[in-house]
Write a structure and sequence with these properties.
Blueprint lengths: L9 H4 L32 E8 L3 H4 L4 H16 L4 E5 L4 H8 L4 E4 L7 H4 L2 E4 L5 E5 L4 H4 L9 H9 L2 E4 L9 E3 L4 E5 H4 L10 H12 L3 E5 L16 E5 L2 E6 L6 H15 L9 E6 L21 E3 L2 E5 L4 H14 L4 E5 L2 H5 L9 E4 L7 H16 L1
Parallel strand pairs: 1-2, 2-3, 5-6, 8-9, 11-12, 14-15
Antiparallel strand pairs: 1-16, 4-5, 7-8, 10-11, 13-14
């Protein structure tokens, strides 16, 4: 059942796109141990969430487009209950977006190809002195599978709007490829980042040496993923996510007829045998995908998995698919893993019908100056005191 995005508009690939080269130069001669930058865990405090009201009829089709837009608005309004949300929007669709998202979501005009901010936005990193920067990973339409000329400029635009330094690299990848614990460990799928359509000729060792200083990594846990089955070539955030250092949520496809069945079993074996950058074994919590979904937007690209959740300040935003048993099990698992957060389940079947998830539509901007999860505990304590005073 865990199928996902395979569609793209071949005719649109060459129209209005800048075909960026994927040549990778010499790896940076910098050890991650001396890196100035660290990609914080998603569970630390956010300054805001970035999104894009970027769906178009050319890519999504006339029938699906209105539902996708409603889904984007639902996600944005829900997150805005917990933290600021800034959404990019085309000038021509500003009024439409405003009518759907309401006054609690900030809208900024920007050219866009599509809506996947997890992949097109810059990735925010922090320094020990409290400063921030944003890394541009040279989005190329998931290996030039879809028009991307406008989205290729989103990373620099977001960094500019956020008022942070833009860091450049020769690597070509998307935010959905990378999952970090904020303490030196990453989970990455080989099928995506070592693909010839992103980083031709790059070895695993060269990739690690180049990426580590940008994100403050000491260890990468490699999952095989699966290439060529969806437009992303098997993004990490479809398979495994850190809840916090030492705890990983991993997807499992129980359908033996699915192409993801065998690979998700293999991923579980790898994660259960893995250790993090501190040499500690991981606690692996399995989220089994639904066996049934609602019929209205069901198709071969539908992404039916719970790993695409999003962690924001005080909450986890989680998809539900109408499979009562599986939806309830995912909710209970999330409540156990995130006991201090509200778990909010949403129906975003339009986005799922395009092979995506809530996580795919978002990109977090961390609050500057955080170092570890003790900062989040302090935040919770402050909230509790405020409630008590009221």
């Amino acid at each position: 059942m865990l199928t996902r995005r395979t569609f793209f508009q071949a005719a649109a690939l060459w129209s209005g796109s800048i075909l960026m080269g994927c040549t990778v130069g010499k790896p940076l001669p910098v050890s991650s141990k001396t890196s100035a930058w660290l990609m914080p865990d998603e569970g630390l405090l956010h300054k805001r969430t970035w999104m894009a009201f970027g769906a178009s009829e050319a890519i999504w089709g006339r029938k699906l487009l209105p539902e996708v837009r409603r889904n984007l608005a639902t996600i944005a309004r829900t997150i805005a209950r917990f933290e600021p949300v800034t959404m990019l929007v085309r000038q021509a669709e500003y009024d439409l977006a405003l009518g759907l998202v309401g006054p609690d979501v900030e809208l900024i005009v920007s050219p866009l190809d599509d809506l996947w901010m997890r992949d097109t936005s810059s990735i925010f990193v922090s320094a020990a002195d409290g400063s921030q920067a944003a890394v541009d990973f040279n989005f190329n339409g998931w290996g030039e599978k879809q028009a991307y000329g406008l989205d290729a400029a989103v990373a620099a635009f977001v960094a500019q709007q956020a008022g942070v330094q833009l860091l450049n690299t020769a690597l070509v990848l998307e935010g959905g490829c990378i999952e970090v614990d904020g303490a030196g460990t990453a989970i990455i799928t080989e099928s995506c980042v070592l693909n010839e359509n992103r980083n031709p000729g790059l070895t695993k060792a060269q990739f690690e040496e180049t990426l580590a200083p940008l994100l403050g990594l000491e260890k990468i846990i490699w999952l095989p993923g699966i290439a060529g089955k969806d437009i992303t070539d098997g993004h990490t955030d479809f398979y495994a996510r850190f809840a916090r250092p030492g705890v990983v949520l991993a997807g499992y496809d129980p359908d033996p007829e699915s192409y993801d069945h065998a690979v998700t079993k293999q991923h579980l074996e790898i994660l259960r045998a893995a250790t993090d950058a501190q040499g500690k074994p991981l606690e692996v919590v399995v989220l089994e995908g639904p066996l049934t979904i609602r019929d209205e937007y069901a198709n071969d690209d539908f992404a039916a998995g719970y790993i695409g959740f999003y962690v924001c300040n005080g909450a986890v935003i989680l998809q539900e698919f109408g499979d009562t048993q599986a939806d309830s099990a995912a909710l209970q698992s999330m409540q156990g893993v995130f006991p201090d957060r509200e778990i909010v389940q949403l129906n975003v079947d339009g986005i799922a019908a395009g092979g995506g998830s809530i996580h795919c539509t978002t990109q977090q901007q961390p609050l500057a100056g955080q170092t570890n999860h003790d900062d989040y505990k302090i935040y919770l304590s402050m909230l509790a005191n405020q409630v008590a005073q009221k």
